[in-house]
């Protein structure tokens, strides 16, 4: 009979790090690992089927412990969690939503990670425009590069590893692919946060490594520009219109056309708070994101629930690993002192990055009103603005009721943040924390069919 | 013989571990569906099952995410028109 049972929701860096510590503890624990992907590793450790796991230390198949029992639930999403008399009943569904089942545990480590933030531009709905994460996964996991003239546009450090993957995979495939990286901010902003770097010297080497790689492989880099429009002719992407922007992302120029047949875009990451909301965990505003409040041991406001990784604040995979380890060590009542020091300097670095790549509302000003904002329900920027100006919409939630933005299949996962910022921009409100907190509540956290429920 | 599934009646070959979207994009095809209101072509966008832009009809079931579901020998995949319901 196991001493305790733990569900790890999300098998990315935080979840796998927690699993490792639980396995190393030599305690008799039943662990239920749940992830919506067909393979563990999260978004960060996506890899080709059959290839060795990228982080051998945290590869679950390398655990020697026979004390813990791991039940894997891959291609499985959690759509509801009940808290019944001190234990948790987790309801899951298969990827198609057609099979539902339930696991019961005493404790939960919630590590649901983040989704990519994208900003709309004209024709961003055309096939061939995708998030940088989607391109990264196509190239890295499936060796598919669906373009020859690739533009990676947005803000933040993620464009660098994506550009590198494209160059590496295309040369392996023998394909001639040009890559241009368009960054909204100036590279000189890095000097503003030298202290965060001094505590994380490996990050300096990493950055320099990327810059050398870009230079050697002829990756073009443009900064202080964003993509305003993708040019499409007879269904094919033929180029992008890049405009010069100020640090608040506003622009007063017409821009220049660059050749492109594939556009990847990324403006950082947003914590995936869907399940945290369902559990009713206490939240706070952190670098403009709603995040889960945790104590020094990653405990949340709800007894029996720990949170780790991006949902406690965007910070990258190394911080997620530290947080996952600390949560697991707290569950098995072991010391996590060395991890806490690591976590401290990694958090400092994350705060530094957030300051280097802020997303100010300037992008809204010059956006064409006909640009689609809610991709599912095909609601335009103009309709959102109108709902605020004429109908009194004062939040993403009320804008949804007027316009259907956020009411489609994705349930606002892609557009909600942008809808909120446009509403705030029109109303000239300051950012409203309680508002941002309320808006991500989705009573059902994933896709499940009625047929799946009745089984 | 490479493994294949059909996409609108045409054979798409795939490698083991491929998602449906990866195999279709590798074949050079771009569009996976057309939207309900404006009839716009759409394809993979987020790549991680969040955005539902890559939805296709698989063996008669509509709204299936091509970026999450794995390719399987002999399945019938169709480009989804609108909500995917038979008119």
Number of helices of chain B: 1
Spatial sequence of strands, sheet with the most strands of chain A: 3-2-1-7-20
Structural class of chain A: alpha/beta
Distance between the amino and carboxyl termini of chain A: 29 Å
Shape, per Cα inertia axes of chain B: globular
CATH architecture of chain B: Roll
What are the defining features of this structure?
heterodimer, A: 455 residues, alpha/beta, FAD/NAD(P)-binding domain, Arc Repressor Mutant, subunit A, 14 helices, 22 strands, B: 87 residues, mainly beta, Ubiquitin-like (UB roll), three-stranded mixed beta sheet, globular
Q: What is the topological layout?
A:
The complex is a heterodimer of chains A (455) and B (87).
Chain A: E1 4-9, H1 13-24, E2 29-34, E3 69-73, E4 76-84, E5 87-94, E6 100-105, E7 107-110, E8 114-116, E9 129-131, H2 132-142, E10 149-154, H3 159-173, E11 178-183, H4 194-198, H5 201-216, E12 220-223, E13 225-233, E14 236-244, E15 256-259, E16 262-266, E17 269-271, H6 274-279, E18 283-286, E19 289-292, E20 305-307, H7 316-331, H8 337-356, H9 362-365, E21 372-374, E22 379-380, H10 381-389, H11 396-403, H12 416-427, H13 433-439, H14 450-454
Parallel strand pairs in A: 1-2, 1-7, 2-3, 7-20, 9-16, 10-11, 10-16, 11-12
Antiparallel strand pairs in A: 4-5, 5-6, 8-17, 13-14, 14-15, 18-19, 21-22
Chain B: E1 3-7, E2 10-14, H1 20-26, E3 33-34, E4 41-42, E5 55-58, E6 61-65, E7 76-78, E8 80-81
Parallel strand pairs in B: 1-7, 3-8
Antiparallel strand pairs in B: 1-2, 3-4, 5-6, 5-7
